[in-house]
């Protein structure tokens, strides 16, 4: 049986048994927080437990490495939607140790792209259009610095409302221990 068949069969029973009722909440975060974190599988359940969040408490944006690379890209658009439309009034960027983005090798990934069937012609067209794949697929060397870069990008955004604290944390993906690397309340008291 395929993964999709398994999902659909499980979902049918989930809905029939009204298991969804345990997760009913509104679209507005009860704790008025937005979390930007990594898509790492180890954080799916660990991060909310380690931060004492349950369904409905926070908005969560996940991407590779919790990295915000474009001030007007989709992640920042989601940040603005959370702040202006969904009642969030605090932001936390949460990176983690042993992150795949820390070991991302753009050349190796480009080779993998080729190995999986993307032609040299497509890659050449992208490069000739100004898209430098080695830059676009670049990771980071230090998770603390990567989190701080994303925090700074948010803090300096021209559309960020005044008095919004932007914090930075790093979580241990094994124990859930948190390290605070940027206290957004301190920036507001300066």
UniProtKB/TrEMBL annotation:
Binds 1 zinc ion per subunit. The keyword Metal-binding applies. It is an enzyme of class 4 (lyase). Its cofactor is Zn(2+). GO terms for molecular function: carbonate dehydratase activity; zinc ion binding. Keywords: Metal-binding, Zinc. It catalyses: hydrogencarbonate + H(+) = CO2 + H2O. Its EC number is 4.2.1.1. Pfam families: Pro_CA. It comes from the Bacteria. PANTHER family: CARBON DISULFIDE HYDROLASE, CARBONIC ANHYDRASE. This is carbonic anhydrase. It comes from Paenibacillus monticola. The lineage of its organism: Bacteria, Bacillati, Bacillota, Bacilli, Bacillales.
């Amino acid at each position: 049986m395929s993964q999709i068949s398994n999902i659909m069969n499980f979902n049918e029973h989930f809905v029939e048994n009204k298991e969804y009722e345990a997760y009913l909440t509104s679209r507005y975060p009860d704790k008025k927080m937005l979390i930007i974190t990594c898509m790492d599988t180890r954080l799916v359940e660990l991060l909310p437990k380690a931060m004492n969040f349950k369904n409905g408490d926070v908005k969560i944006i996940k991407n590779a490495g919790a990295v915000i690379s474009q001030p007007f890209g989709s992640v920042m658009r989601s940040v603005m939607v959370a702040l202006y439309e969904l009642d969030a009034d605090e932001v936390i960027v949460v990176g983690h140790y042993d992150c795949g983005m820390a070991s991302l090798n753009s050349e190796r990934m480009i080779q993998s792209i080729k190995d999986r069937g993307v032609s040299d012609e497509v890659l050449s067209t992208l490069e000739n259009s100004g898209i430098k794949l080695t830059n676009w697929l670049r990771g980071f060397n230090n998770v603390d610095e990567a989190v701080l870069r994303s925090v700074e990008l948010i803090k300096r955004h021209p559309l960020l409302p005044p008095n919004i604290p932007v914090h930075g944390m790093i979580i241990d993906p094994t124990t859930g221990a948190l390290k605070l690397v940027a206290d957004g309340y301190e920036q507001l008291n300066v």
